[in-house]
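Sat 14:20. Reprocessing the chain from the morning session after the first attempt stalled halfway. Input below, unchanged.
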Amino acid sequence: MKSSRANGMDISFLNNAPAGAHGFIRATPDGHFANDKGRVKFVGIAIVGTLCFPNRAEADEIAGYLARHGVNLVRFHFFMNYLLAKDKARANGYFAALDYFIHALNRRGIYIDLDLYDLYQISPPGIVPDGGRFKPNDFFFYSKAIEAQKYYASLVFNHVNPHTKRAYKDESGIAFAELLNENSPFWGDTLQKCAGESKAELEKLFIAWVEKNAISAADYKALLADPAKPLAPGNITFPSVYDSEAMKEFSVALMLRYYRSMKTFLGTLGARIPLTGHNCPLSPADFYTLARTMDYTCSHFYWTHSDKSSLKTPLNHFWTLPPQLGRVRNAGMPAIVNEFSYSHPNKYRSEGLPELMAYGALQDLDALVLFSYHDEWPKFMKNGKPAQGSWETPNEKLRYHSNLVKDPAIWPLVPALALSFRQGMVRPAENRLRITSTRDEAVKRETRERRYTKEQMDGLETDSFYSRQLLASSEETYKKVISIARAYDKTDTAQLLAFTSRVEREFTPGPGGFLYNADGGPSAPRLDIKPWRISYLPVDDNSNFTAAHDSLRRALAKNNIKIPAVENGVIASDTGEIRRDFANGVLSVDTPRLVVRSGFIQGDNAALGGTLAFAVGNEHLSAAIVSGDAKELASARTVYVLFGVNAGNSGEKPAKMKDFHIGSDYGDGGEPPIMADALAVSLSWKRTHAGYRVFAEDPDKAEYQLLAESKAGGDMVSFTCLKNAYRYKIVFD
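Finished this time. Tokens:
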């Protein structure tokens, strides 16, 4: 990595180094993360596979580079297999590299998020899984899989880092950990896929569950291979979890058993960090089990993943990020986004970070983690020998998760995300709305239709992970993938309120299907929200959403809960700081310390009471103007002006166009994998000053060059941006 020079990007002052200096991160009763000095918020990056093991020089430079961009969390993902390489010298080498990397990150105030699930292609000594390797569904019930995961967890938490002389269970620079990655009985019908020894164990557990809970034969009859024969091993099938009430209840029982067992085990190891289970819960049943057993919730959010039909702007759609964020938080628990990307090949993906910046703050989330820092997808273990990835020669093939540090649609905006989110520049929502569900509602409303009538299609509620992919596709494409769509608890529709207010869920022994203002306490009046069912399918206009939202708004007003109306296709947050223009595809954020414009903002744009204006020649652009020293923009000594531009795929191999890329810092010749629009922006700002200097980022170096200056006092700042520089810093005398 290139070093940051005196006028380069450096907001490492945000980090309290070393990480963990103020004690372990813990979950607080009010539902946030804190250490001994108070609340802690995180902006993070995922690092994947072999890239978790850089050499020492790379580790120091990566850690410094991330700290200078305001990153204070790294999520290690798909890394554990390498610590189990059959070649002990190789395994020890991976551990040594990981130890130093964690040490280098912690020294710069960067915490660690451990994804304890791995693909488990290597089994611990003495554990021979049925079929040669574990399957995702195994970890909820198969004794060997659970034994293996306990072995993996022990291997990590009991390991002593030679650089700190502390075991990881005693390392306060480890922030929190996830037990499973994208894995639940409600995620892809995983229990259907068990076979052999694991199925035999599952059958025994099912029979014991039936007997313990006195489940009637009528309730489990559909699971019998031969209904004329009794419930016994060999006569049990495991159908889709959506086709059997018994399967739903049994699946929830398995999850509760597994989560409690693993949390207890990690406690006996001495681990003192917050834990979560399934790190991408999709269903109310998943959230219910997490609420009963875990410390926090998290989830993954992508715009279309790898769907190449998605070249339209997310900001024109209602069912995008805000409603997703509105279903992440369980009452009284921290909530994070641990994978996020509005990704390639969506040419409008620069909208992603401003949207996350705005609504992540409105929902008062606790961590935002981008996926992933580098596009070297791990070449997984084969016969115990991994194919080594490299920080020097990243994979040239573009994948759905992008190479963030090479993407001018995304990476230039990361410092704005860090400055604004970590310092609270966008206020949380004033209304804290809570949706109640009973246990039965969480479990029994999980249904999936096999065949859809037109009426069912028109009213279908899609799940959180696939909704953007489906919305971005044609109707015919949607029908082809209808098997992955699920009908959800009808109360989830009210989470469209997340455009205006903070939304969280509460599992209650009392009546479910109600919404109330959590700040009003237990006596706050409840509103039955079942009548307000909003279609999430694409529509040609705003009428359905607007009418339904306005009806719900009037009903809430009777309960003394006031939310903004949708006016001319525009909806604002209840703080007034965020405005979402669905009709034109524009997101605006206006606060004393932050200004954001994203989407189709071509033309003249004004902010700060009309004193700041920038003229945009680009068809589509994301721009963030952010205080660099926590003061209001009108008095800040340092102000950053950062842009994310449209960027398209230039093919499988990098195009040799140095004019249109962010310097890669990889020593790979600076060849970008993507082509980006030239920047066509000028800025003028009416502000009294004693003098100023404007620095522009040199796209081929990790430093800034002087673009404009005024040594005399005045009342105006103005400059024209370079076509290929996406970051600017204004320093006032």
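The two ends are 31 Å apart (CA to CA).
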